[in-house]
Each structure stands twice: as C-alpha cells, then as structure tokens.
Amino acid sequence: MSDFDGNFMETTSYWNPPASPSPRTIFEMLNQIDDVVNPIAEIFPQPTDQSEQRSGLGERLAARIEFTLPRLETDNISPFAAFFRNTNDVPSPMVPISPGFSPSALLQSPNMLSDSPQINPPSPVANYEPQVMVESCGEGNATTMISENDLPHYEPMNVALPTPQEGSDIPIEESVYIPSHESHVEPQYAPLDAPLVASFDTEVVDQEDNDDIADKQDVQASAPKRRKFETSSNMIGATRVSKNQRIIIQMESDEDHPDDGFRWRKYGQKVVKGNPNPRSYYKCTYEGCNVKKLVERGADDVNVVVTTYDGIHEHNAPVPRGSGSKFRSGPSMSSQDDQTNQTTQLGMPPSSCYNNPVSVDTTMTSTGPFTSLAPPMDMTQLYMTGLSKLPSLPVNQNTGFMYRNDEPRMDAIPNGTDVYKGIMNRLFLNFGTRF
DNA sequence: CGACTTTGACCCGCGC
DNA sequence: GCGCGGGTCAAAGTCG
C-alpha cells in the first residue's frame, strides 16, 4: 500500500488501488470530498426499515435512567442519516445543539452535562451497557454516536443543553451515563482487553483546559487501573479518566499493519486468549510520543484487521523515509501546521476537517469551529468525525459482522464491496480521476 | 548501519 | 499464594 501525507490531490496520480483502503486513506478521502457532497449518503442509501429501532430513544433513555431527558430531535433520523444524508437535505452531518455551547468542551469535561439541572446523573451503570459516544465538529454542533449492543449504529441526537454558567460550581469527578434501553445484553460482556473487543472505547479528554485535572487523574489511574475502570464501566457516556483515548478501528485488509500515516515500532507480539491470531503491539516512533496501537486480526474473520489506538499523537504524521515529492506534505504541513500542533491527534494523520478547510462543512464554518478564533478540534472530534463517515452499518448488517458477545464494533471496509467501490466512484466524480 | 521485526522472558494485575 | 493473561522488555535477527 502506498501512502501519502496529507495531500491527496498530489498523490493520487501515484497511487495504485490498494487492496483495501487504510484507515488513513479512508479518512483523507472522506475529508477531501466532504465539502462537495456527502459521499456516503449517495453511496449508501439509507435503509428505511430500522426506524422502529431508532424511535423513542428519548423515551427509552428516560425509562432506563428514570428521568426525562431533554427532547431528542430524532424525528428525521434514519440510520446514519445525519452523517450520510445528502447535503441537499441536511447541509451538515452534524446536528446542531444550543448555539454558543460547546459540546466538545462539555463532553470532554468530566462534569459534562452534570451541571444541567435537567440531568441528574444516575449511578454508574452496569459495565455491559452499550456505549454512547458524543462528539462534535465545532462549538455549535454535536453528534451523538450510539452503539447498541446488538446493532451498532450511529444515532444522531439533537440535545438541547443549557449554556454552562460561568463559575458554576461543578464537581469534576462526575460523569454522565446515558444508559440504553437494551436489557437483553448478557453480563459476560467482553472486557476491553479481550481479543477483538469491538467497543468503540474512548476516554474523552479536554486537553485545552483541564490538563491539570487529567494529570491528577492520571496519577490516580495507572494504566491497569484505568483499564479496569473501562471494563467496569464500559464507558457509558464520556468520562475523562486520563489523557488517554482509545479508538478501535477495524477494516478489511490483507495487510497486517495497514498504513495510517504514522511510523510505528513493533515492540511485542502476543497470542491472546480467544484469538488464534497474534496481537501485535506498536509504539509510535516519534520522539516523546507515547501513542501505542494494537493490531490483530479478527478471531472470526482473519480478513478483518482491528487496530486499537491508545493515546494521543501530539505531532504531525511524519514524512515517510525516502519520500520525495511523492510524499510531499499537503497544506496541513505548512500554514496550518501550528494549528494542528495545538490539537491532539490520536493515531491519525493531521488531515481532518479542522486543518483541511476544504472539507469544512459550510454550516459548521458559520458556527465558528474552523475560524482562527475557534478552539482547535480535539482528536475525539477528529476521529469520530471520520469514523462517522465510515459506511459501517450497512456493511455489517449485510455480512453478519457481529462478533462475540455482540459487542458493538467499528466496522470493516470490505475490499471490493460496494462500499469501497462507492468511495472510489465518488472520488472519481469529484476529482475526475479513476482510482 | 540504522530502523525495524521477532520472540522468549519477564512484570504485574487480577481472580480464585 | 498461585496461576492466568495481557502487556512490555530487550537481545538477536532481518532488511534496505
């Protein structure tokens, strides 16, 4: 697989069709074409037979946690709709919430939502709850991604949240848990460390404003303890327990170590229980970078490579060795480099919406996340934004990509499928280049 | 020769 | 305390 660094247009002429798009490739492709039209929406018409599953989420949540959430505007939601819908219908894949309110900061803060008089955080839920991931791509927008246990999907919600009061006295240790209505989940839920754990697990960090808090919590939570916490809580909602973020991406690939734009050094390999395929351990080779990733093949499908990023890149993707113009960095390496460096990167190249203005959704621009005055988007946003574009659910449903324990997963991008072809077709339409 | 991979040993947390 | 399992270390080997 050839790789490139942030300048898709310059590298496409060199690029031969990969066996399967790497995470990096996918993200960059999708970001590049994001401003033109929502490609996934066109590629993957939204199924219409799942509305029942989506309906009444607010009621389900309310019933589950015994209080009434603010209204969730899910009227127009179909699976992936807010992410993949054609821009003619919805100009932004991000669902707006209260203006002036930063869902990113909210969700990255340990006291997120807890200052809301409408929400009284319940006790931590059982650890086999589905995960609720929340992210935004700007101050005025937020998207909630929900993976339910039996059916991974992203369910955008429009949550009206109060504007946080300045100086409000908020306990920093609290978290918000948003339990799901699902009740049939078996308690033998696989822990995070189990082979091919599919949970999209992340510990949301607000590195801009709360490093001191994170540091304190880091001291209290060594890696094993943190892992235990993750297992025990299954990360319902977004709880900041450390600076770490863990993202699990799976994709179909012939390569054992698909390129993601960063340089990694393999420091270990282990066969873990429940998976005959060894798990490889990689560290980022960038000096001072502590990001690690685990790569393993699926126990059930060896064609699926599961990559778990653990940590945050605080540097740009390096230029590959021996690279000439082929790997010449794109715009992100120049004027926007500084901005990129102010943000966090989690196992991903610095080519996402915030440092690639071309991909910025116009409505998001109007809300300010990509202006010079806006805080840089954090890596959770970056990741989730990209991941939200992955054509996941239709693929999984059609191919039965459910894994042990029915744990929600990030989904594979099968090579040769309509998914992949669709992406390529969209690239062709947008750039006039056949890939 | 430097970067990277391989691989067995070791460490440590956890459950029993 | 002991065994298990996941994660890490580090020496040796490989590659370009």
UniProtKB/TrEMBL annotation:
Signal peptide extent: none
Stored InterPro entries: WRKY_dom (IPR003657), WRKY_dom_sf (IPR036576), WRKY_plant (IPR044810)
Bias-annotated ranges (Low complexity): 336-345
Domain WRKY: 253-318
Record key words, sorted: DNA-binding, Nucleus, Transcription, Transcription regulation
Residues that span the membrane, as ranges: none
GO cellular component, one term: nucleus
Region described as Disordered: 1-20, 313-352
Subcellular location: Nucleus
Primary location recorded for the protein, binned into one broad class: nucleus
Highest taxon listed in the record's lineage: Eukaryota
GO molecular function, one term: DNA-binding transcription factor activity
Stated name of the protein: WRKY domain-containing protein
